[in-house]
Amino acid sequence: MQQDQCCSPRFKLKMIHRKTYRVKDLQTEIEAHTDIFHNLDENGQKILRSLEGSDDAALLQRRLDNMNFRWSELRKKSLNIRSHLEASSDQWKRLHLSLQELLAWLQLKDDELKQQAPIGGDLPTVQKQNDTHRAFKRELKTKEPVIMSALETVRVFLAEQPLEGLEKLYQEPRELSPEERAQNVTKLLRRQADEVKTEWDKLNLHSADWQKKIDEALERLQELQEAMDELDLKLRQAEVTKGSWQPVGDLLIDSLQDYLEKVKVYRAEIAPIKENVNHVNDLAHQFTSSDIQLSPYNLNCLEDLNTRWKLLQVAIDERIRQLHEAHRDFGPTSQHFLSTSVQGPWERAISPNKVPYYI
């Protein structure tokens, strides 16, 4: 009697549920170590990039590959064991529900991916988008064994399940033959499985395309940022020199020619900055023909850099004009000298050799 009880369907189902719970506990423990695994993997990749080309890099790469392989195999085995046990209890309904859940998850992730667009218009924004998408890709990597296991389970189920068993699992509103019912079950599961596979492939493809756009944007925005930083540095250096100029009215008459020559030398020294200005503007112009819209911050920076360069040119031209006029009107070859009889504030500044010029 005890032997009959052990062989009864109810007893078998009870044992299946018990084993299923044990596998679930194991899988829960595996999931609890997922973050640790990903941290190890990411840190290993960072160290690997710093050791690129060395023997240590090759050794570290093999260890990382081995760790990833063993982790993937562990997850696959736990998922396969769980799938096999659960398939023994109301298999078709479970598979049907599992595929529905996967399709809903895939749709959710596809919506999330679309919401990450468009590409930002400055470096900090795109760097944040890159971090967001890296986390998104980790989700896909974690979900991949689940999806592959579900598809494999459906394939095995459809290949091994006899038609006599299938026809009892699916009820049509009209009377169908056992063969028709079995075919409907097969078609439904196969259609769902094909849809999951298609949506999974599309999601990964869209993710790869989005990552490519992010990488390209990071490279181009980084180049623009570096060019603007270099131009800003050169402009600040030139502005410091310009800021040290004394008003023409405070200069001594016999030094006007020297100051005029210094301004001309200064103009020649900063002339190459024009190439930096053109380079920055060319880089910015390239974004107008792409799907990347520069942010207001970048646009303001560009406008500021161009304005500062123009103001430098205006200041140089004005300085040269004033020095020319002062040298013409009060220089040694001019006929216009200040008289020693001039009264008021001029009187204190006049000397035989050093007479200041006031605008």
From TrEMBL:
One of its GO terms (biological process) is synaptic signaling. Keywords: Coiled coil. Pfam families: Spectrin (PF00435). It comes from the Eukaryota. InterPro entries: KCMF1/Dystrophin, Spectrin/alpha-actinin, Spectrin_repeat. GO terms for cellular component: plasma membrane; synapse. Residues 207-241 form a coiled coil. PANTHER family: DYSTROPHIN, E3 UBIQUITIN-PROTEIN LIGASE KCMF1. This is Dystrophin. It comes from Mauremys mutica (yellowpond turtle).
